[in-house]
Amino acid sequence: MMTKRFRAACAPRLASGLCLCATLSLPAQQVLEGYAEVMTPLAASAGNVLTTNAGTVYFDGFDLMLDSGSGGQSLLTFAAYTFGSFSAPIGATAVLFGESSAGEVWKVPLNGAPSQLVTVVPFNYDAVLLDQDRALVSARTGGFGAPNNDVMFVDLVTGQSQLVARFPGASGPLAIDAAGDIYYATSPATFPAPSGTVEVFRLGRATVDAAIANNTVLGAANATLVMQGLDAAGDLAFDDDGDLFFVDWYNGRIGAIQDADGPQPSLAPTLIDFAGTGLYGSGLQFLPGAAAGPVFAPFQPAGGSLLVYETDYVSVNQARAVSAARPSLTASTGSSPVPAGPFTLDTIGGPANGLGLLLWTPTAPAGPVALTLGGMQAPLFLDGATTSGAIALPFAFDVTGYASLGIVNPGFATAFASTAQTVVFSAPAGFGSSNSLQLQISQ
Q1: Predicted pLDDT of residue 378
Q2: Residue 192's pLDDT is what?
Q3: Which of 281, 305, 333, 415 has the fewest Cβ atoms within 10 angstroms?
Q4: Are 286 and 305 in contact (CB under 8 A)?
Q5: How many whole angstroms from its chain centre is CA 177?
Q6: What tens digit of pLDDT does each residue of 303-314 get?
Q7: Which of 381, 393, 384, 398 is nearest to 435 (CA)?
């Protein structure tokens, strides 16, 4: 194990006489940079996977199954082997399921009630819900030789369908942002697809609604170009902060367009690289967090999760739940009160070779405060006690994102409460922070 040590200058002595003498020791530890992940195995035959409150929905070629954790239940059965296209949530009670063998689009209740055949859209590929009664379906309705792909409007109550938009090339995926705007990623008609030819377009919701009402057909000329030069985008999913994630099957990775719903979208660093694993991303789904505030970004408090459905197309299927991972700050004393003598404050889960700043203040924690920093994608969550008048000790993390600061408590006649917190910074991820740590400083 490689270890290096760094000594920081002794911090100024407080009126109370506390001296912080920092020693940085760096043991090795492997972490996923700014994120945590949990793997869940899926049935070997699982495709078109969707996570719902009722359980995991998947299609095995014959049955659309619901696995609630206590055994599988068939929601919809086909007599012959069928190619599934998509599974999209209809609120919390049903699933919109499409298959490309016969082009059927089904509304499937999750409570086991009979499924409803909504309509037939030949060679359907993907879908998004405008609301619980209306959907858009991406389909190459003219067949494999057609020069264009269609985006069809489907009324889930009446079964009515109509052409809303048409883009050149093969079938591409759809996504919808928080404002209701529609995103479409093109797919080249030739195979193998030339690199750098995939584009992502945005259709404003008002434009789409007007096209549905007036029975007009939109195209690239009616859309905003969000990103060009991608190699592939097999599936799309928005997070809770306007970032659009995509399956790049061409390069075997999960990429992202940062601020895709804003005026200046840009490519973000690769989230997952499957190189050398034998696995491929097959689908994406974002599950929002229980409370507003934290966003899906590196080194942030945990909130929503991006589900990446992965397979080796032989026998392995799994769901990778990726969530933000906030650095963790702990004291070597284990708990308060901190006795006189040396101890350490240890931060794990920081940015590899990144920068850190230890904040310390001789006051009790005051509760979390979200600070907006210019140019940063995510807010900086600090405890109110550390936002003003705190001592700040800069340091560097090791290659594993670990740092240990050695501190000396000289002892005091009267115990007092204090608060410590770590701020982290890395060039690709920006700012983040650890939990706040309350320390009772004693004799």
Answers
A1: 85
A2: 77
A3: 415
A4: yes
A5: 14
A6: 999 999 999 988
A7: 381
